[in-house]
C-alpha cells in the first residue's frame, strides 16, 4: 500500500519533517506526528501481530483506538494501540505474538 | 471447511458466530451469560466491538427485546487506562487514549 499523494478533497500531501522508527530492527522513515499504523501501512507491512488462540495475522481494523486489533510492542511495552499512538524519533516497534512479552523484570 | 458461522464476532477472544449460537441454544440468553461461557467481550477491548452485535444475535434468535439482553450498566473504565491512573489522579495518559 502507498500514501495518497493527491487527495481529491484534501489536495496534495504536504511536506512534513521525517523521523526514523525501527520496525522489527529495520529503520523506517515516518512522517512526524503520524500514527504508527499509518507508517506501517505505507510501508506495506503485511501484519502487525498474530492472535493468541489461532495465531492468525491481524492488522488495522477500526482505526480509531477501540478494537485493539492493531496492537504491537512499542518501546518494549506490549499491547500498544498503534492506530492512536504517534510516531517518535527512534521508536522501537515489534510485531507482537499473542499477548506479547513484558521482558522479564520490567515492572511498568 | 469454513462458512459464515466461522466469522469472528468477538475479535479479541476469537469467538465465532457458531460458538455464540451454540451457547444461546444451551440457554445462555443475555450478553453477560454469553460472556461468562464463551469469553466473548473479555478481551483487550472489553466488548467495545462485540457487545452490540452479540445483543442483536441473541435478540434475533430468541425474540427477546434488546433491553432484556444488554448489560444493565457499563462498568468503568470506559476507555483503556493504565493502572497508574487508578493510583494517581494526576496521571493523564492522554497521548494514548
Automatic annotation (TrEMBL), chain A:
The record's annotation in Gene3D superfamilies points to:
2Fe-2S iron-sulphur cluster binding domain, sarcosine oxidase, alpha subunit, N-terminal domain
Pfam families, alphabetized = Fer2_4 (PF13510)
Q: Which InterPro entries match?
A: 2Fe-2S-bd_N (IPR042204), 2Fe-2S_ferredoxin-like_sf (IPR036010)
SUPFAM superfamilies cross-referenced by the UniProt entry? 2Fe-2S ferredoxin-like
Q: Which GO terms describe its molecular function?
A: iron-sulfur cluster binding; oxidoreductase activity
Keywords recorded for this protein, A-Z: Oxidoreductase
Q: What name is this protein filed under?
A: Dehydrogenase
Natural source organism: bioreactor metagenome
From TrEMBL, chain B:
Q: Any idea of its EC number?
A: 1.4.99.5
Pfam families registered for this protein in UniProt: SO_alpha_A3
Q: Which Gene3D superfamilies match?
A: BFD-like [2Fe-2S]-binding domain (1.10.10.1100)
Task: Could you list this entry's UniProt keywords, alphabetically sorted.
Answer: Oxidoreductase
> Which InterPro entries has this protein been placed in?
BFD-like_2Fe2S-bd_dom_sf, Metab_Enz_Cyan_OpOx_G3PDH, SoxA_A3
Region called Disordered, residue ranges: 68-97
Domain SoxA A3 as annotated: residue spans: 7-86
What GO terms are given for molecular function? glycine dehydrogenase (cyanide-forming) activity
Protein name in UniProt: Hydrogen cyanide synthase subunit HcnB
Whose protein is this, by species? bioreactor metagenome
- What gene name is given for the protein in this entry? hcnB_3
